[in-house]
Specification:
Layout (H helix, E strand, L loop, with lengths): L1 H8 L6 H9 L15 H11 L5 E5 L4 E4 L4 H4 L11 H4 L4 H12 L4 E11 L4 E14 L5 E10 L1 H18 L7 H13 L8 E6 L5 E8 L11 E3 L9 H7 L3 E4 L1 H4 L14 E9 L4 E9 L8 H68 L7 H28 L8 E3 L1 H10 L2 H6 L3 E5 L7 E3 L1 H17 L5 E9 L2 E8 L33 H11 L3 E7 L3 E9 L23 H9 L13 H5 L7 E5 L3 H11 L4 E5 L2 H10 L4 E5 L7 H10 L8 E4 L5 H9 L4 E2 L1
Parallel strand pairs: 13-15, 19-20, 19-21, 21-22, 22-23
Antiparallel strand pairs: 1-2, 1-5, 3-4, 4-5, 6-7, 6-11, 7-8, 9-10, 10-11, 12-14, 15-16, 16-18, 17-18
Length: about 725
């Protein structure tokens, strides 16, 4: 009996746990019958199987009874040891449709091979996405036919998923690499995740505002933007029923959420029939700024266990998305810096072009009379010429002083001395010097500067420049109504307002009013002259006082500049506080401002720049010349130079020139390039477009020097550029 037992069970010796289970199994209850009756072919196959460390199993007999070894046991999952001795279709009904053709082929005598075959196995209580590489080999029996099938297999799920997830990380790094904006980086990252729905059924990408109090939905994958899970904006104070965005952003620790079906009536479905029941909320941290800049909600596949590998991959995804966003933000910042530098470069180019105009015009008006005086026998300037030279010298000095002020501020060398002054009296006197000029054009000047209860600590010289620049600016752009200057207490502040009823400023231009060198093109004004840094200088001088400046403007209604200075002196540098008693008004800068503004005023009809030939009607055999220039001194100068040989008529701007040409024909037009309302180029275009005046010779007269300016003028259609 002992020999019979050893002979019958010898091929089952060893084999670990499965060897013991096979030996103890009641095979009599199966179609295989008792072990002693098993054919040698089955015994041989099982002897190989049980003594191998490679996962193997056998299907035997008409029912394809399954027998497997220790190495195969983990593959069965929760079905072990129940699967032993049961028919293959009973053990794996969920995959039988996929493997049955391969089994039947092997049982027909034709071995098969499958590499990384995707199967969905029910072995842990849910359908699981798995991959296998295996071969099916027929086992001949003693009858000469095929008694069963032998399978050697390897589960390659880890390798397949690892490669797929590594590919996803690579795509997440490569695809948004060229993103020019943060929005692009988010959209491209979501697009990549949408192509890996097996691992990320759905994704929500939120970006945090800089203050960390608001999260905004930036991109989605696998879920509609209008879905309940995808709140477009979440504020820190909101009680969101879905994702605790701010808690995770603050802790920088990922959190897992289960029971999505209880949260949403419709869960974002993912690629499988079973919608995901869990999701992971991960912070997106920018190491450069050491804070959470966003959050990523990632759905967890319903057909994969959420193990450590899966979790760690999610963390790598969040890190890579963060890198892409940080890179895009750096690209945006760099582009903004480049654009700012380019804009500054353009502004400086325009500034130097304008400044050259501002220098050359007064220099011309100074040198012209001086050269004429030197050529005359008396070698002296008469009263009118002396006034012109003095006025333009003052204008030149004012420009140089403004540039030097700005230069010192830029270099940090401008040092203020703050003294306790009667600011109401000083401001009233400053406004008063403009009264005559303002009222000459029919405007009202309203000054509301009652006594203040205390002296105000200011640098008197700087305060003069602040008030005079604002008044000059208001006068330049106001043609009817009034200019109001008011000074009053406003809580802990002293508040200066300069309000006008002028042309106003478009809302899109208001933020740029205090930019250096910035000028609003095409705006109606009394003159086109100016350096474009007056308001920028005002802002810098206010900042030196520790104050604030704001502007409000409505097109067609006017503009209000508001300056606020703190009361007392504790906010000022102690070393810069003086104790000098309140000084009297000296008008150091006022003369230059007022004389410049006076130069913008139109002359009365009987004093306009018209040559004697035109005034007397003596036009016989004399060509008619029309001069357009917004600078009164320049109009007079050019008229005087030309009137000895030609009949000359001068007008203050392009609009007046065009109107005059429609009333009277001229033999030549001399026009300044930079004029308010209608500049020289626009006038030239209008002249050339009118068949009556199209052939009239047109010469550009400008203080803008250089061959480039000349080429631009000639290309525009001018006959000459001087």
């Amino acid at each position: 009996m002992s020999e019979t037992h050893e002979t019958a069970f010898g091929f089952l010796q060893g084999g670990g746990e499965m060897g013991a289970l096979i030996r103890a199994f009641k095979w009599e209850a199966t179609t295989l019958g008792p072990i002693r009756d098993w054919p040698q072919s089955l015994r041989t196959a099982l002897g190989i199987l049980l003594n191998s460390r490679y996962p193997m199993f056998v299907f035997w007999g008409p029912e394809l009874i399954k027998i497997y070894n220790d190495a195969y046991r983990p593959i069965t999952g929760d079905k072990h040891p129940w699967a032993l001795g049961r028919p293959g279709p009973t053990v794996w009904p969920e995959i039988w449709g996929d493997i049955q053709p391969l089994v039947e082929r092997a049982l027909g005598g034709d071995p098969t091979w499958s590499d990384d075959l995707l199967l969905f196995m029910q072995r842990r209580g849910f359908l699981e996405e798995v991959y296998f590489t295996f071969s099916y080999s027929p086992i001949p029996d003693e009858s000469g036919g095929v008694g069963g099938m032998f399978c050697a297999c390897t589960e390659t799920t880890s390798q397949v998923l690892g490669e797929r997830r590594l590919r996803a990380l690579s795509d997440l790094a490569a695809r948004p690499a060229d993103a020019r904006t943060v929005a692009d980086a988010c959209a491209l990252s979501a697009d990549v995740l949408d192509r890996y729905r097996s691992d990320v059924p759905f994704a929500l990408l939120y970006l945090m505002d800089d203050d960390g109090l608001t999260a905004r939905l930036a991109a989605t994958a696998g879920v509609r933007p209008e879905h309940a899970a995808a709140s477009p904006v979440v504020h820190a104070g909101d009680q969101s029923p879905w994702w605790p965005l701010f808690r995770v952003a603050s802790s920088r620790e990922a959190e897992e959420f289960q029971g999505l079906a209880q949260l949403f009536q419709e869960v974002p479905p993912g690629p499988w029939p079973e919608a995901p029941s869990r999701a992971m909320l991960l912070p997106i941290v920018d190491r450069g700024v050491d804070r959470s800049i966003g959050l990523l909600v990632l759905g967890i596949s319903s057909r994969r266990p959420f193990d450590n590998d899966y979790r760690e991959w999610f963390e790598l995804v969040a890190q890579q998305v963060g890198v892409s966003i940080a890179n895009a933000r750096a690209s945006e910042d760099e582009r903004r810096r480049a654009e700012a530098l380019a804009e500054l470069d353009r502004a400086k180019t325009a500034f130097f072009s304008n400044v050259s105009h501002e220098f050359r015009t007064p220099l011309t008006l100074m040198l012209g009379p001086v050269e004429e005086a030197l050529a005359a026998p008396a070698r002296a300037l008469d009263g009118h010429q002396l006034d012109v030279v003095h006025r333009n010298a003052q204008r030149l000095l004012k420009l140089v002083n403004t540039l030097l002020d700005f230069s010192r501020i830029e270099e940090g060398r401008e040092r203020a001395t703050f003294e306790p002054l009667d600011l109401a009296a000083l401001t009233s006197e400053l406004a008063g010097v403009f009264r005559s000029t303002i009222e000459r054009v029919g405007l009202r000047l309203v000054v509301r500067s009652g006594p203040l209860s205390e002296p105000v600590y200011v640098d008197a010289d700087m305060w003069e420049k602040i008030v005079l620049n604002l008044l000059s600016n208001a006068f330049k752009f106001t043609f009817e109504g009034e200019i109001e200057v008011s000074l009053q207490h406003a809580g802990d502040w002293i508040e200066l307002r300069v309000r006008d009823t002028g042309i106003g400023v478009d809302p899109t231009e208001v933020p740029r009013l205090f930019e250096r060198f910035y000028r609003i093109e095409g705006t109606r004004s009394r003159t086109y002259e100016g350096s474009g840094i007056g308001l920028a200088l005002v802002r810098e001088l206010v900042k030196l006082h520790g104050g604030q400046i704001d502007v409000e403007s409505v097109v067609g209604e006017g503009t209000t500049f508001t300056i606020r200075l703190k009361r007392g002196h504790h906010h000022l540098p102690p070393s810069q506080i003086g104790t000098t008693p309140a000084r009297t008004f000296t008008g150091t800068h006022a003369t230059a401002f007022v004389e410049e503004a006076a130069g913008w005023l139109p002359k009365p009809p009987d004093a306009e720049s018209v040559s004697d030939a035109v005034r007397d009607g003596n036009l016989a055999n004399r060509g008619r010349i029309l001069v357009a220039d917004d600078n009164a001194d320049m109009r007079d100068y050019v008229t005087r130079l030309l009137s000895e040989r030609w009949a000359v008529e001068a007008v203050p701007d392009g609009i007046a020139a065009l109107a005059r040409m429609r009333e009277q024909s001229f033999d030549l037009v001399l026009a300044d390039v930079m004029m308010p309302g209608l500049d020289g180029f626009e006038l030239l275009k209008a002249v050339r477009a009118d068949p009556v005046s199209a052939s009239t010779p047109f010469i550009m007269l400008s203080a803008r020097a250089g061959e480039e300016a000349r080429i631009v003028g000639l290309q525009a259609g001018a006959d000459e550029y001087l």
